[in-house]
Design goal:
Blueprint lengths: L1 H31 L3 E7 L4 E7 L13 H14 L13
Antiparallel strand pairs: 1-2
Length: 93
């Protein structure tokens, strides 16, 4: 009997989360119209997340991701930064 209450409670929580998500998406659909969802890639944090895509964006395709290009861009950005000298007087603007 106790296991039955536990299972119904757990299923009830999942049902509430599902209903809330559906209601939230319905309100967003009424407000913004239809949307295409896809994978976004953030180069600063090197992470991906799912979100609404702009109309002209096809999203991030993990098959096309080449880590060497990212490392090369990071190396170029590091090379473009000015290096501090030993004399602090020279570093002042």
């Amino acid at each position: 009997m106790e296991a039955r209450f536990f299972i119904f409670g757990l299923l009830g929580l999942f049902a509430l989360v599902f209903i809330y998500s559906a209601w939230h998406e319905y309100k967003r659909f009424k407000r913004d119209g239809g949307s295409t969802y896809g994978l976004h890639y953030d180069e600063e944090t090197n992470t991906t997340h799912v979100g609404a895509l702009p109309d002209e964006d096809a999203g991030f395709d993990p098959e096309d991701f080449v880590p060497d290009e990212l490392e090369q861009r990071e190396a170029e950005a590091d090379d473009a930064r000015p290096t501090p000298s030993d004399d602090p007087e020279q570093d002042r603007p």
